[in-house]
């Protein structure tokens, strides 16, 4: 049993299947849909080509690596921009976070059509660009982080205070009328250590100890 659809599984098990890789990048004002070869194929409402008229071609896709510890899975893709303007635009900071989707698919040789439901290999977002240029060539290596990268957000700067609360929910006045809170709540920073009290004897002493610690 595989993760592929029945049609895709049968196609890949056949003799010398015609397979392809497809990459889509949803930029803020443009949609790049590239194949790993010279062709034109359509599926899932998009048309993929070997070359994007504005931004060039796909050169390579690095092997996907698993994340460990506090790292999410990631890979890198190499694009060959069509010109200096395209290269500079792709490497711009406003491109960071653009959605990247990578598929593995197969083609029916008899009809030239894509086998239904290509396998979704990876969903991520553009992270760090590295532009390399020489006299007669230029290439852009883009590190692509998995969408799981956002799970590592630690919310530094968040505060349980009326100013921060209103920055997220403008006009919400709940914290303006909050009074009588005996203990502060620390977000984004480590709370100061609490005082250490000796454990007293007796029921009354334990209640007094709890009151002192939780104060």
Please give the alpha-carbon distance between the first and last residues. 58 Å
Q: Mean of the pLDDT scores?
A: 78
Order of strands, main sheet, comes to 2-1-8-9-10-7-6-5
Kindly provide the radius of gyration, computed on alpha-carbon positions and rounded to a whole number of angstroms.
Answer: 27 Å
Helix content: 10-25%
Count the strands? 10
Number of helices: 4
Helix and strand element order? HEEEEEEEHEEEHH
| Major pleated sheet | 8 strands, antiparallel
**Number of folding domains?**
2
Strand content: 25-35%
Structural class: alpha+beta
Poorly predicted runs: 202-207
Q: Sum up the overall morphology in one term.
A: extended
Which helices and strands, and how do they pair?
Layout: H1 6-13, E1 18-26, E2 31-35, E3 40-43, E4 46-49, E5 51-52, E6 56-61, E7 74-80, H2 84-90, E8 99-107, E9 119-133, E10 138-146, H3 162-168, H4 203-214
């Amino acid at each position: 049993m595989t993760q592929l659809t029945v049609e895709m599984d049968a196609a890949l098990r056949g003799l010398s299947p015609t397979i392809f890789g497809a990459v889509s990048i949803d930029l803020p004002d443009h949609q790049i849909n590239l194949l790993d070869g010279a062709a034109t194929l359509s599926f899932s409402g998009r048309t993929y080509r070997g070359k994007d008229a504005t931004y060039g071609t796909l050169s390579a896709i690095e092997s996907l690596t698993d994340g460990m510890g506090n790292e999410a899975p990631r890979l890198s893709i190499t694009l060959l921009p069509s010109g200096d303007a395209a290269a500079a635009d792709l490497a711009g900071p406003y491109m960071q976070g653009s959605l990247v989707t990578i598929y593995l698919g197969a083609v029916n040789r008899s009809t030239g059509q894509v086998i239904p439901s290509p396998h979704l290999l990876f969903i991520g977002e553009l992270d760090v660009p590295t532009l390399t240029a020489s006299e007669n060539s230029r290439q852009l290596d883009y590190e692509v982080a998995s969408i799981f990268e956002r799970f590592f957000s630690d919310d530094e700067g968040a505060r349980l205070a009326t100013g921060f609360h209103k920055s997220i929910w403008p006009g919400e006045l709940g914290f303006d009328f909050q009074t009588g809170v005996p203990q502060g709540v620390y977000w984004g920073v480590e709370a100061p250590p609490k005082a250490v009290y000796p454990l007293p004897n007796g029921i009354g002493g334990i209640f007094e100890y709890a009151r002192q610690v939780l104060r």
